[in-house]
Amino acid sequence: MASKPKRRDKALEIRTFTGTAGESYLVFRTTGGSFHTFVEVEAKEAARQCGGPAKGNTRRMWQSIWDAQSEGRARLPA
Q1: What residues are paired with 77 via a beta bridge?
Q2: Which of 18, 20, 29, 52 could in theory staple to 61 by disulfide, Cβ–Cβ 3.0 to 4.6 A?
Q3: Do 48 and 29 reside in the same domain of the chain?
Q4: In a domain, 35, yes or no
Q5: pLDDT tens per residue across span 37-64
Q6: How many C-beta atoms surround the C-beta of residue 26 within 10 A?
Q7: Whole-model pTM?
Q8: Domain count along the chain
Q9: Considering the domain boundaries, does residue 2 fall inside one?
């Protein structure tokens, strides 16, 4: 049996929530009623895990990752 494709809406509502252990959640709700949840992580550590340079400021690390993907040369973590 084929899986049902996800809904694709044109609008999103966004809110943040704090969990009981202090973690931050970013929640998107579509106009169709679907919810998508993301948990906040430290940006520099996330950049390292996504293949960014081991050193540098957070903005440069993410810019390097962003540019690599745009150029079709997505990098894998070392």
Answers
A1: none
A2: 52
A3: no
A4: yes
A5: 999 888 999 999 998 988 889 999 999 9
A6: 13
A7: 0.55
A8: 2
A9: no
Task: Give the span between the Cα atoms of 51 and 61, in whole angstroms.
Answer: 9
Residues 48 and 32 in one domain: no
Alpha helices in 1-78 (DSSP H): 43-49, 58-70
Report d(CA 25, CA 1) in Å as an integer: 33
Amino acid at 24: S
Question: Residue type at 72?
Answer: G
Quote the percentage of the chain above a pLDDT of 70.
86
d(CA 67, CA 65): 6
The pLDDT value given to residue 78: 46
Same domain, 53 and 31: no
Say how far apart CA 25 and CA 56 lie, in whole Å.
26
